[in-house]
Design goal:
This protein is an alpha/beta fold. The chain has 3 domains: 4-171, Rossmann fold (3-Layer(aba) Sandwich), CATH 3.40.50; 185-360, Rossmann fold (3-Layer(aba) Sandwich), CATH 3.40.50.300; 366-449, GMP Synthetase, Chain A, domain 3. The protein is 32% helix and 20% strand. Strand 11 (297-303), helix 9 (313-326) and strand 12 (335-337) form a beta-alpha-beta unit.
Length: 450
């Protein structure tokens, strides 16, 4: 398994670096053309490396947003941010160094410039927050950093961003293809804050791809990583922890929650990480239901299984029974116990998610659907409705991801929900739709037209 910088070597990588709150994430969003990275007045919002593809002038590249670097880290978390920036520099082909024209050159800027001069990478110096870049002299003092011609830009309004990108693509290496990276399946790692999502991702990747800290809520953006697993190209998304709505107090947390929700919506399968040591809560179930209702495949990953004194087969079976009794939708979802700390079944959980994705794409022939539908109806007739007998006349699978079946009935509005659940459970058992929701659409059709 390889990290994105190695696996997608055909695309050059551009890393955006600089001290906190100079507008790196604003520029990142401007270049990729959408609000992917969180932007807030609070400094230090971006902590992990955030990747996205970008294109300018016929050239495609990977753009990496990084946390703000400091010259004298005052905590372990600041040190981790600095390590992320250095990691981005190590794997980047071009460095986009962002500074703040309004504050001028600071000691931290000098420190970052020194790091970059020693990196051996081409560096483009972007002087941000120049409201009227044309004719401005605000960028001239930054020649002192010794990184070539500084480019004035206003990331918020987009002024001079085209000139900046022209300069940027001119620094990209000529080798390698320009096709944007593809992937076969998108897996989102979801769950409450501090249950071990980032630890799981790092263990699966075999490197410290995302920051892990005791502080709850360390991951704030939905972080995309491209990997290859069992020959399958995977986009792996480590999301911000989803708190109860009543605890989402700040604007920053609101946007983190929003991005995590969007990560669920654009994913094929979600790995729901729960903390066995702390106990599984109703909030864990609500997060799982959110993914299930969005049509995602789902695998429940019971993390920190190594912390229990007795974790034998009987304990495992009792644990699964308890979860499924508390949340009935989990009766349709595979449950696997893991330990991100020791690596126990970490890879197996991801492989299980790929199996669920295969079930999600499964298509059943119409003739087979109707043969089995007739068997189910013969075994247990639909209940009589208020206007007479309810008959299921015909069925077909209309689409996949998630599977959607269309049933034609003489009185679709009179079919009880419990009978539709009976049909769903029969389909699930017959065709092994483990871990994926099944959708039904009921349509009216007269028996005489069958």
């Amino acid at each position: 398994m390889r990290a994105p910088e190695n696996r997608l070597a055909e695309l050059p990588t551009v890393a955006i670096v600089g001290r906190p709150n100079v507008g790196k994430s604003t520029l990142f969003n401007r270049i990729i053309g959408r609000r992917q990275a969180i932007v807030a007045e609070e400094p230090g919002v971006t902590r992990d490396r955030q990747f996205s593809t970008a294109e300018w002038g016929g050239r495609s590249f990977l753009l990496a947003d990084t946390g703000g670097v400091t010259d004298a880290p005052g905590s372990s978390l600041d040190a981790a941010v600095r390590a992320q920036v250095l990691a981005a520099i190590e794997h980047a082909h071009v460095i986009l160094f962002v500074v703040d024209a309004r504050e001028g050159i600071t000691p931290v800027d000098r420190h970052v410039a020194e790091l970059l001069r020693g990196s051996g990478r081409p560096v483009l110096l972007a002087v941000n927050k120049v409201d009227e870049p044309v004719g401005s002299l605000a960028h001239l003092e930054f020649y002192e950093l010794g990184l070539g011609d500084p480019v004035p830009v206003a990331a918020l309004s987009g002024k001079q961003s085209g000139d900046l990108l022209d300069r940027l693509v001119g620094l990209l290496p000529a080798t390698g293809g320009d096709a944007p990276p593809g992937y076969d399946v998108s897996l989102a790692v979801i769950g409450k804050p501090n249950v071990g999502k980032s630890s799981y991702v790092n263990r699966l990747l075999g490197e410290d791809r995302v920051i892990v800290a005791e502080e709850a809520g360390t991951t704030r953006d939905a972080i995309d990583t491209f990997v290859e697993l069992e020959g399958v190209r995977v986009r792996l998304v480590d999301t911000a922890g989803l708190r109860r709505q009543s605890r989402v107090e700040t604007e920053l947390e609101f946007y983190s929650r929003l991005r995590a929700a969007r990560a669920i919506e654009r994913s094929d399968v979600c790995l729901l990480i729960v903390d066995v040591a702390a106990g599984v809560t109703n909030q864990d179930f609500r997060i799982g239901e959110q993914a299930w209702e969005a049509g995602c495949g789902l695998v429940l990953v019971a993390n920190k299984w190594d912390l229990g004194e007795d974790r034998g087969p009987d304990v495992h079976a009792a644990f699964e029974r308890e979860l499924r009794d508390r949340a009935p939708f989990l009766r349709k979802v595979p449950i696997i116990t893991t330990s991100a700390l020791t690596g126990l079944r970490v890879r197996k959980a991801a492989e299980l998610a790929l199996q669920v994705h295969g079930r999600r794409l499964q298509r059943v022939a119409t003739a087979e659907v109707n043969r089995y539908l007739a068997e189910l109806c013969a075994r247990r007739q639909p209940p009589q409705g208020p206007r007479g007998d309810v008959r299921i006349l015909y069925g077909t699978q209309a689409s996949t991801a998630p599977p959607l079946f269309v049933l034609w009935l003489n009185r679709p509005k009179d079919l009880p929900r419990h009978y539709l659940r009976y049909i769903e459970n029969g389909f699930r058992e017959r065709w092994d739709f483990l871990g994926t929701p099944i959708r039904f659409r009921l349509k009216r059709r007269e028996e005489s037209r069958r």
